[in-house]
Automatic annotation (TrEMBL):
Taxonomic source organism: Sporosarcina thermotolerans
Residues annotated as catalytic: C116
Binding locations of UDP-N-acetyl-alpha-D-glucosamine: R92, R121, P122, I123, D124, Q125, D304, I326
Alphabetical UniProt keywords: Cell cycle, Cell division, Cell shape, Cell wall biogenesis/degradation, Cytoplasm, Peptidoglycan synthesis, Pyruvate, Transferase
First-level EC class: transferase
Domain of life: Bacteria
GO CC terms: cytoplasm
Pfam families: EPSP_synthase (PF00275)
One Gene Ontology term from the biological process aspect of the record: peptidoglycan biosynthetic process
Gene Ontology MF terms: UDP-N-acetylglucosamine 1-carboxyvinyltransferase activity
UniProt domain Enolpyruvate transferase: residue ranges: 7-405
Name of protein: UDP-N-acetylglucosamine 1-carboxyvinyltransferase
Length: 425
């Protein structure tokens, strides 16, 4: 199995570049299904979620070319092939195939999505939206079957603010007859990015980025060219790394406005954050104050940065509390961090962390994507050589991580070790 090995204690210095946003990429790629001619997306991250979606589009007859971050998808010969198993289970965002295929073919059969295990992650609001648009939806043996004679615009109030449901309903509605209104919509920057691509394909969408989105259905959508937004979660991960182990790190290709909640928390901790147009510079930090953090929907503090941030709090003076209001079980990093000498106690949806604690190297397991990112940061801080197992979770969302971190002075490598060395299931 592949593992990361990190020798901690090296000060990070220099420039690190952020890739295109995973959570945009995984929606932009399925959105291409709705076009009748090729769609080109530039700046895509080279992560396994993108490669899995490429394979899924090829399974339904798409012709896909991908290299150097640029993907061209010719959707003209795609068919409504059922995708009940296999690759759809490898990522969360395979749920976007439901909205996009329903929008184009008026039918789809897609397996229930995978993705990180963070507690229950139902898709009832997606289904409620599809049904409101006129689809009949059934769940048969772990796959969702959708079928509609025609899709008609509708007013849909989301009971839960959901990124996935907002985008999925947009995908299904852009070619429906008449007007769709999504109320209590999510406002994440990735939603604006997907709406921008769809609009450039000929869709009529207003209000993306606010909590009411209005869509006037159109008959056809055409190909276009689109450049993806930078990944605010990858940028945030690098900002936390810089605050924890940096000696002057410039984070390149970031929209500072997208990471404001993190910037505010870092400043509260005593970290200097210098915002420039498309970069953020973090000089060496000497003293970190403990802070409390609550994750919220955008523009609140993102749940996806909560796990990396927990490592920084082990280095702060005093007691900090993180409360994750989005997921019920997103603290699996804490057990691993404790084996590295951190002091942390999970109580329900909160974790109490005390510091500062010098971290010690250990063999640890990435239970999910951002737990993995947290362990990388811990490894960079720890004394000795840390081994991180189950790195396939990390590679779902961070492209070229080894190269990027070596570029700022980290001592990190990927190695293949025998399976028997695996810790904890
Ligand atoms: C591929 C992708 O973009 N993933 C992101 C997306 O996930 P995802 O789209 O799965 O997250 P949602 O915004 O839908 O989920 C937010 C909350 O709503 C609940 N919910 C969601 C849908 C639904 O039908 N019913 C329901 O109860 C979820 O269980 C969760 O508690 O947003 C999350 C919240 O910012 C991020 O952590 C993920 O990185
Ligand atoms: C939870 C995440 O991803 P996914 O929704 O793809 O599981 C994440 O990106 O942190």
């Amino acid at each position: 199995m592949d593992v990361y090995k990190i020798r901690g204690g090296k000060p990070l210095q220099g420039t690190i570049k952020v890739s295109g946003a995973k959570n945009s990429a995984v929606a932009l790629i399925p959105a291409s299904i709705l076009a009748d001619s090729p769609v080109t997306i530039e700046g895509l991250p080279e992560i396994s979620d993108v490669l899995t979606l490429q394979a899924l589009l090829e399974d339904i007859g798409g012709k896909v070319n991908f290299g150097a971050g640029k993907m061209t998808i010719d959707p003209s010969e795609m068919v409504a092939m059922p995708l009940p198993n296999g690759n759809v289970k490898k990522l969360r965002a395979s749920y976007y195939l439901m909205g996009a295929m329903l929008g184009r073919f008026k039918k789809a059969a897609i397996g229930l999505p995978g993705g990180c295990h963070l507690g229950p992650r139902p898709i009832d609001q997606h289904i409620k939206g599809f049904e409101a648009l006129g689809a009949k939806v059934t769940n048969e043996h772990g796959a969702i079957y959708l079928r509609a004679d025609e899709l008609r615009g509708a007013k849909i109030y989301l009971d839960v603010v959901s990124v996935g449901a907002t985008i999925n309903i947009m995908l299904a509605a852009v070619r429906a007859k008449g007007r769709t209104i999504i109320e209590n919509a999510a406002k994440e920057p990735e939603i604006i990015d997907v709406a921008t691509l769809l609009s450039n394909m000929g869709a009529n969408i207003k209000g993306a980025g606010t909590n009411v989105i209005r869509i006037e259905g159109v008959e056809r959508l055409h190909g276009t060219k689109h450049t993806i937004i930078p990944d605010r979660i990858e940028a945030g991960t690098f900002m936390i790394m810089a605050a924890a182990a940096g000696d002057g790190v410039l984070i390149d290709n970031v929209i500072p406005f997208h990471v404001e909640a993190l910037t505010a928390k870092l400043r509260e901790m005593g970290v200097e954050v210098e915002e420039r147009e498309e970069h953020i510079f973090i000089p060496k930090t000497r003293n970190l104050n403990a802070v409390d953090v609550k994750t919220l929907v955008y523009p609140g503090f993102p749940t996806d940065l909560q796990q990396p941030f927990s490592v920084l709090l082990t280095q702060a003076n005093g007691t900090s509390v993180i409360t994750d209001t989005i997921y019920s079980a997103r603290f699996k990093q804490i057990d691993e961090l404790r084996t590295m000498n951190a002091e942390g106690k999970v109580e329900g949806q909160s974790v109490i962390l005390s510091g500062p604690t010098p971290l010690q190297a250990a063999t640890v397991r990435a239970s999910d994507l951002r737990a993995g990112a947290a362990l990388v940061i811990a490894g960079l801080l720890a004394e000795g050589e840390t081994e991180i197992q189950e790195i396939q979770h990390i590679e779902r969302g961070y492209g070229s991580l080894i190269e990027k971190l070596r570029g700022i002075g980290a001592d990190i490598r990927k190695e293949n070790v025998p399976e028997k060395a695996k810790v904890r299931e």
